UniProtKB/TrEMBL annotation:
Pfam families given in the database record: SPACA9
GO molecular function: calcium-dependent protein binding; microtubule binding
Region annotated Disordered, chain positions: 168-194, 208-246
Gene assigned in the entry: SPACA9
A single GO cellular-component term on record: sperm flagellum
Protein's name according to its UniProt entry: Sperm acrosome associated 9
Organism: Chrysemys picta bellii (Western painted turtle)
Biological-process GO terms, alphabetical: axoneme assembly; flagellated sperm motility
Domain of life: Eukaryota
Length: 246
């Protein structure tokens, strides 16, 4: 939400500079319309302003002010996308957002919209200009900015955890994925397949059995050795048979 507010403030600052040059903007539109031989139709869409700048703009000043208008409209369109991604919204915020998206659409008809008090952009036009030519195009940006401020005001009334959970959803999801990968990498290996476990048990059993047999065999040899030594002690050294003892 803080990022949205910051973007909105930046657009408002740019618009204040643009608003101070409204007469330059109207003069640029008037010249490009004349070059296009299109003096009858009102300025009815953002796309129409874009076409005038691309094909009928013959001086740097006119191009600069028309480009400034189009740039603000583009930033408003991007901000609409950010608002849409911030949270699912309620019926109120969704209606406001849909209105914003419609207004900044390049093909939307702007000829009938008018910015009302406290905005005075229409008041700086002549009656003919306001009614038949430029009333809609000069009203577009202030109306959209008001709608976005209303969206922010309604969104801030939503529960904090609702806004936080959805706005950080993608970051949390990415963080959980990284944690899962780290956990799997550090976790001990699971049980071996049954065939390996059985073979391992058999090998261990065989080793135990062999060790036990070796221990028994060693004990028997030890006892046999003891018996032979005892026999030698009792009967004396070995002598060939048939010879008398001395």
């Amino acid at each position: 939400m803080n990022e949205v507010k910051e973007c909105l403030r930046n657009i408002e600052q740019t618009y204040k500079i643009f608003q101070q040059q409204q007469f330059t903007f109207i003069a640029a539109l008037d010249r490009t319309r004349e070059d296009a031989h299109d003096k009858i139709r009102p300025i009815a869409s953002i796309g129409q302003v874009q076409a005038y700048m691309d094909h009928h703009c013959n001086n740097t000043t006119d191009r600069r002010i028309l480009l400034m208008f189009l740039s603000i409209c583009s930033e408003l369109n991007k901000l609409c996308q950010k608002l849409e991604a911030l949270h699912p919204g309620t019926s109120v915020t969704n209606n406001i957002l849909e209105k914003c998206k419609l207004l900044v659409s390049p093909s939307n008809d702007l000829s009938t919209i008018r910015a009302k008090y406290p905005h005075d952009v229409v008041n700086h036009l002549s009656c003919d200009e306001a009614k038949n030519h430029y009333g809609g195009v000069v009203s577009l940006i202030p109306i959209v900015l008001d709608c976005m401020k209303a969206w922010v005001a309604h969104s801030e009334k939503l529960p904090r955890n609702f806004l936080h959970n959805v706005s950080d959803g993608s970051a949390d999801s990415q963080k959980r994925t990284q944690q899962d990968v780290s956990a799997k990498a550090s976790a001990p290996l699971g049980p071996r397949p049954a065939i390996l476990t059985t073979a391992t048990q058999t090998l261990v059993s065989y080793k135990d059995y062999s060790g036990e047999q070796n221990r028994k065999h060693g004990k028997k040899e030890h006892l046999n050795g003891t018996g032979r030594n005892t026999w030698k002690y009792l009967n004396g050294p070995w002598k060939p048979p048939g010879k008398p003892s001395f």
